[in-house]
Amino acid sequence: MSEIITPALVSLDEPLGTDKRAVIDALAARVAQTGRASDAAALAADAWKREQTDETGLPGGIAIPHAKSPAVREATLAFARLKPGVDFGAGDGPADLVFLIAAPDTAAEEHLAVLSRLARAFMREDFTAGLRAASTPADVVALVQAAVSDNPPAPAVAAAAVAPATALVVDGRPARIVAVTACATGIAHTFMAADALTAAGQQAGVDLVVEPQGSSGYKPLPQSVIDDADAVIFAVDVDVRDQQRFAGKPVVRVPVKKGIEQPAALIDEAVASVGNTLAPRVSGNADTAAAARAEGGGAGVGSAIKRSLLTGVSYMIPFVAGGGLLIALGFLLGGYTIAFDADKILGASTLWNLGDTSLIVYLGAVLFKIGALSFGFLVPALAGYIAYGLADRPGIAPGFVAGAVASFMGAGFLGGIVGGLLAGLAAWWLNSLDVPRWLRGLMPVVIIPLLGSIFASGLMLLVLGGPIAWLTQELNTWLSSLTGAGVIILGIILGLMMCFDLGGPVNKVAYAFATGNLAAGIAGDERYLQIMAAVMAAGMVPPLAMALASTVIDRKLFTEPERENGKAAWLLGAAFISEGAIPFAAADIFRVIPAMMLGGAVTGALSMAFAVTSKAPHGGLFVFFAIDNFWLWLVAIAAGTVVAAFAVVALKRFAHRRPVDGVSSGAEGVPSALANA
Fold first, then answer.
1. 7-153 CATH pick, 3.30.420.40, 3.40.50.2300, 3.40.930.10, 3.40.250.10
2. 499 is catalytic
3. What architecture is the 159-283 domain classified under in CATH?
4. Which pTM value belongs to this model?
5. DSSP string spanning 9-51?
6. Domain locations in the chain?
7. Of these residues, 111, 183, 189, 499, which one is catalytic?
8. Residues 66, 111, 189, 618: which is the catalytic one?
C-alpha cells in the first residue's frame, strides 16, 4: 500500500477560498493532480453530497469532509491549514485544520482501517497541536504517518480519564452502558464518536463499552454485555446493524456528531433513562436478540440457522403488511372483482383518460396493483434476508435470486426458506475463503453473488424446487379438504402457535404460513382467508388480555409500570402489535404465556368456526373493511381476551411463581424471542 498522504497533498496557510465548497474543490483538485483520483469534480461532488447530509465541522477548529467515491483510485488524505478558518458547521467557530478523506468506493479493509485510525487521532490534542505548529508539508506528513501507523500513540484524553469524577450509579454500582456509533461512510465520525464516548465514560466512572460499526466491518459486542447493560446509546446516522440485539433497553438515539461533541451529556441522559418507564426503548422483534443469546451459550449451526429464519421473516413482514393493506384498500374502492380486472383497467385507462371506468374504481385498481406487486416480493424477500442473516450483505443478492426461483417454480414460502438457507450458506462459505488481497474487493460485489446464485438457484431449479412445489401443493390440498372439526382444530393449533413465543420461531411459522398463502386466498380459496383472520385475531389476544387484566380486572396484582404498560397495550393489541404483552411475559413467563395460549386457542377456534375471512395480513381492528363477518371476528377476539385475562389473574393469585434465570423482574428484556409477529 502506497503512502496515504504526501507533501504534494498538503496545503499550509494558502488561500483556498472563503467557503467550505471552495476548500473541498481545492483539496479534491490536489488529489486528482497527484493521480490518486480520475476526476476532481466527481470526487468533490461526492464529498459535497456527504457534507450536505451532515456538516463535518468538529469542535476545536477541525473539519473532515470525506467520501467514498468511484473517482478515487487509492485511499488518500489531503490536508489544508487555513488562515483564516472557514465555517464547516461546528458550533464553536470556523475550522483551520481541514482533512479531505478520499476512499475508493471499493476500498479494501486495510485502507479503511488506516482512515479510521486517522479519525481517532483527531481526539488527541497533541496531534492537532502538531498540525498547527508544522512548518513544512513534510512535518504534516510525518505526523499523519505516525497517527495511522499500526501502533499509534494513545489518546491524550485517556490520561485525563484515569481519575473519574463523580460516578453515575445504578442500584449502588457504576452504570453499565453500551453504545453503537456509525456514520454514513463509516470512516471518520464513527470512530471519533467511539473514542469520545469511551473517554467520557471513563471520566464519569461508568462501565461503557462501544461497538463502532465502520465500513471496515465491526465486531459485535458479546450478548452477555448487552444483556447486562442498563441503557444504550445509539450515536448513528444510519441504521444500527442487528438492532434487535438491544431490544427492550432504554435508548438515547442521536446523530453521530453528538457522540463527538456531547459525550458526557449523552451518558448522563442514558443513566437518567434507567428506571424511567416513559423513556424510549429499543424496538424490534427480538429475533436477532434471541439468536445472539443462544450464541452466548454455545453457538453452532443450529443457532445461526434459527437466527437467519427469524431475520428473514421479520424483514419479509413489511412487504406483506404493506402489500396486503394496499390490496385491501383496492377491494374497498374497486370491489372484489378488481383482483381480476386491475390489469385490464390499468392497461386501458389513465388518470387523465378514464374512459368508461370511474375514478374510484381506477384508484382501486392502482392500489390493488401496487399491493400485488409488493406481495410479489414475499418469497424473494424471505429468502434474501434469510441469506442475509447467515452471511450479512453478501448473502442478499443470491438469496433474492433463489427466492425468485422458488416463486417461479411454485415452491412458495417453503421454497423461499430452503433457497435462502442454501444461498446464505454458500455466501458465508465463499466470504470465509482466504483470497488474495487484489481479489478481496471483488468478492462481495461480483464473486459471491455470481457463485452463490449459481449454487443456490441451480439446486432449486435442477433438484429441489420440484419436490418442494409438490409438497406445497399437497399441503394446500389438505387444507382445502378440512371441514367441520378439522377446521376448528386447525384454528386451535394456529392460536396456540401465535401466543407460544410472541414473535419467536413458532409464532413466525404460523404467521408466515398465513401470509404466504394469502395470495391464494385472494385468488378465490377462502380457506386461506380464514386462516389469515384466525392468525391475526389470535395475535391480538396477548396485549389485549394483559391490558384487561392489569387495568380492569385486578390492578393490585400488577406493578405500577405494568399498569402503565397495560394502558398502552389496549391500542397495541387493537392494531395487532404484540409488543404490548412483552413486559408482562418477560417478568412472569410461566404464568403469562400459558394464559395467553389458552386465550389464543379459543380465539383461533372461534374465528375458524365462524368462517371469518381477512384479506389484510396486518392492522387489527383498523382493517375492518377487509374482514368479512367482522362482528363475529370481534366476538372471537373478545372471548379469547376474556379467557386469557381471567386465566392470568387466576394463575397470579393461586399458582406459585417459578423464577427464570437471567430475567429481571419488571425489565423489558425477554428470555426468549418475544415480540410482534
1. 3.40.930.10
2. no
3. 3-Layer(aba) Sandwich (3.40)
4. 0.50
5. GEEES----SSHHHHHHHHHHHHHHTTSBS-HHHHHHHHHHHH
6. 7-153, 159-283, 302-473, 485-654
7. 183
8. 66
